[in-house]
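Running low. Invent one:
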Amino acid sequence: MNGAHAAHAAHRYGRKMLQPLVIGLGRSGAGLHAKALARLAALPEAPLRTAPLVACDPRPEAGRDLTGVTVTRTLAEAVRLVTPQHTVVHVCTPPASRTPVLAELAALGFRRFLVEKPLAADRTALDDIVRLRRHHDLDLVVVSHWLAAALTDRLRALVRERPYGALRHLAFAQHKPRFARTFTGEGHPTAFDVEIPHSLGVALDLAGPAELGDAHWSDLRCEDGVRRFMGSARLTLRHHSGVRTEITSDLASPVQQRSVTLRFERGAVTGHYPLSEHDDHAQLVLPDDPHGPRVFHDDALTAFIRRTYQDFAAGRRNHSTVPYDVVRLLCAAKDHCRAAERTPAGETPAVPTTEEQHVR
């Protein structure tokens, strides 16, 4: 499928067909977004009408394994193949480079954006993106697919219906070995930015607004060297509802895990999110369940992108503040860790105030 055909298809169908444009063909762009769009296009019920995918990445090797995708090497080349008012831009560049990419695309007339998590790596970048969104009236959605997961839906029902009483505590464990990607790229500045945004969004969704309680990070070490702040990350939250949350992520772990335990007044529930796109099944373990664990299909990213495109096509705006609250809490955690490194032994670093955290 050549670029002229893609542009013609988008123009021909107008508002009935949205044009995907993926910026960045790394792990997120090529490995997740492009494949999810292909799965949606292949569904027999044809839930969405999208034009053929156009992508942009300056690296000569990027996109070689993708079929049915027009790969460009410059944004100027990509822009010639699409119509901004009919395009959904998937921004899959590293979080540290989000602001200039969004600014350039907004200046070119693009208004619909699906941005990889986390939205920004620091408060300054977040404030810049908020200003860009307001100035250009951007319809900007942050990838938060755990919120669209079937497992999260079941957890919401347990919190809402209270079969085991009120929710008291949340504990997330997100572990995976990430040596090769960490030592060969600069995609994420700290371990807080890799896995934790997923669970942090779910914690806010299930238990409501929160303040940072504590945070810790460590370096990633192996025979190849040391990467500062990329080993492990841990944070605790104090929710206004009274719930406490603990999130841990170890990027030096020899095994992979994505799980959550909800402790209620009368029992504990454990959920396991799919580990990767290679097996999109989740598991739910309920107290005294003779049929447990419950195992079910849960392709959350495809469901999230499908829902987002449906909203874009219908003109429904996403007004969720959760992705912004996630970044603010992550920034508070990083500030706490930096302060701890500067604090003399025996003293306790101060946790940022509620006003400093700017949480929901």
User: Anything to note?
Assistant: The CA atoms of residues 19 and 87 lie 4 Å apart.
